[in-house]
């Protein structure tokens, strides 16, 4: 069996998934790790999803699933970082959610005992037209701080970085720091580009466009509103106050498309709903003209039909790949748990488990 510490590992992708996976590898004891990516923290390419995310912790996973476990592991890590590492850009704050329909109130959620101060709002606390609501303590993350933080942590722990634009996943095997032979394992964290990368070309991965508005206006915490029957399909409402001067994010939308255009009519609806959910954003009597817009943005969530892919695959020539992509809109809040699951697959691949999927 190959020694784990000496195994050469290449992580393809430097979004939140790739960076986190590299750090979990290092925590596991691997010492020869290289991150290879077309885009790095600080870049603003549309196909590089992580910088465009709004980012809070709001699980959509079901009890008893692998996704629940990923979310639990990630919660514990983010909660620790929020208290111990303010430079990570993670801030704990109260989130209030309003529902405009009666449905959903009785649904049991596993995380009600995980997130502090989880409770339903009293009728006197509900704005006009809201049927029910709830609040809890959660966290918001500013990607502009968190992604560079992850990269710095990687560098400080001896993880190498190389810029490269791959046409085929097999190219990654020769890009580790010791080029005397192919990497032991390549981890594919390419996100939405998994649909295009040669040797992967996963047709189940689709780009789901999200549109945001970043404003200088401030609010006390996070707010969300859902359940309106007259909203166009794929539109939602959330307000997230980013920590440490990062502005306030207004969203949002989810539409399957590669169209990078900012829809200004949608932007107006997003801003109007944000004010309804959080009136304190503007002065009394002001509408969206009271919002001080920094910029409008578009990003593409890496949604995978059938759910995220975390598995081992073997290409001809005993080239072993561990896939870790397809998290969609919950890439950040599941990142530490998904990375842990992927590293378990790496261990399995190196130890020669019979569970490896072989491509002929």
Quick description:
It comes from Serendipita vermifera MAFF 305830. This protein has 360 residues and is an alpha/beta fold. It is built from five helices and 16 strands.
- Give the CA-CA distance, first to last residue: 24 Å
Number of domains: 2
Output the CATH topology of the largest domain. Answer: Rossmann fold
Q: In terms of structural class, how would the helical and strand content be classed?
A: alpha/beta
Radius of gyration: 21 Å
H-E order? EHEHEEEHEEEEEEEHEEEHE
Under CATH, the homologous superfamily of the largest domain reads NAD(P)-binding Rossmann-like Domain
The level 1 CATH classification of the largest domain is: Alpha Beta
Q: Main β-sheet, in a few words?
A: 9 strands, mixed
Number of H/I helices: 5
Proportion of residues in extended strands: 25-35%
Number of E-state strands: 16
Low-confidence stretches: 354-360
Sum up the overall morphology in one term.
elongated
CATH architecture descriptor name of the largest domain: 3-Layer(aba) Sandwich
